């Protein structure tokens, strides 16, 4: 039998309110008659997927939500759905008996959860179906589902009613199933390589480890301000100092900043650190992590931001000074001055090559504009860009003999979407203290600079105990999932993204 499409249109609000009122009354009537529409326990022996794989004539007992229902006098067809898929059921008056069949017709509707027992057979259209000898109501749905998903095609409406989005949209369910598989693959890759998964505080006395604006709160008992973490770095390095040589954490970060297609105030980040590693160790590991994650969901290629991406490692590795020379015909050192940029030279270069920028943009923003438009935009497949200027990477180790460049890489896909960032970590406490002081001074001098890092002297004290050479890497989990599943908005890969209050 062909699946039937829902037969009713989305009802106006007044009609829905009447249905809800009647459903509550129906549930109350069932309870009064001693028929509990919300039993405490049910005996489920197979999932829908397992039942579909069982041999014909097998006895099965399956539970799920009724998603389609077709009544035909003395018989009815329906589809029920659980987390593994759908299966058809066939309810016949002669088999169920008149009382049970009448109960089925009167009290079971689309949206309800049922427990169905019976034997498998093939319909004339060769669809494996449960011929029911028992159909029990195990949860009465009160509010009608949007049967054609009218009113929830709007993105904002879908995100505010994610439960309905998941019920009605198989593609959405598949995205989040893939997300779980991707994260599981990342954990397996690291666990197999001897990394230890750790947990560090979400509430921190200082919002350190990154350049970002934090959310601030207050602890009443301790009478002190606290910050939701913006990064994991400083606690992780303490653990490396303490002798945990390979560690990682996958957790929520919080940044009190803007919202767009790639940014949500609450997001998932992974950071990892490896003693005796460096930026090249991290590059090798990144290739393995991303390659394994793609394989875990069966993706050799992805279509992301309008570009086809080849996910099979190895990935191209480029040195920024070399590609800068190729793009602009000049040595990158012509726009560098130690740990700072030469703004005038950058502005002149941007004007020469027709790269737009604002007159009040600082040197770093002009550099980013040149990099984005003239260098990284031409690369669709994953690319690992190495050897950044110290001016944009103040917390990486400098390259031996070259104070203007650091041992850092960023990984990009689809012409500029950053998905990973890695360093050879600073383990010289004097160098680290000087750089943190520079950031603290910048914050004090410029009240608009709310994103500057905060000096964490406890971390410097920990470093003074000795920290081995270390490689560190951060990977944006949400962005990896976006790329691997072909989603252009971060809101499509987070179950409950941050939204403005709904208008009343």
Write the layout of secondary structure elements.
Blueprint lengths: L12 H20 L15 H6 L5 E13 L3 E8 L2 E8 H4 L1 H10 L5 E10 L5 E12 L15 H6 L1 H7 L1 H23 L3 E2 L5 E2 L11 E4 L4 E5 L4 H9 L4 E9 L11 E10 L3 H18 L4 E4 L2 E4 L5 E4 H9 L7 E2 L2 E2 L1 H10 L10 H12 L8 E7 L8 E2 L2 E12 L3 E8 L4 H17 L11 H7 L6 E7 H9 L19
Parallel strand pairs: 3-5, 6-10, 14-17
Antiparallel strand pairs: 1-2, 1-4, 2-3, 4-5, 7-9, 8-9, 10-11, 11-21, 12-13, 15-16, 17-19, 18-19, 19-20, 20-21
Helix pairs in contact: 6-7, 7-9, 7-15, 11-12, 13-14
The portion of residues assigned to helices is 25-40%
Count of DSSP helices? 15
CATH superfamily of the largest domain: Bira Bifunctional Protein, Domain 2
| Rg, nearest Å | 29 Å
The name of the CATH topology of the largest domain is BirA Bifunctional Protein, domain 2
Main beta sheet, described? 9 strands, mixed
Strand runs, count: 21
Name the poorly predicted regions: 1-9
Q: Just give the CATH class of the largest domain.
A: Alpha Beta
Kindly give the count of domains.
Answer: 2
Q: Structural class of the secondary structure composition?
A: alpha+beta
The overall pLDDT average reads: 91
Amino- and carboxy-terminal Cα gap? 44 Å
Architecture of the largest domain, CATH level 2? Answer: 2-Layer Sandwich
Apparent shape: elongated
Strand content: 25-35%
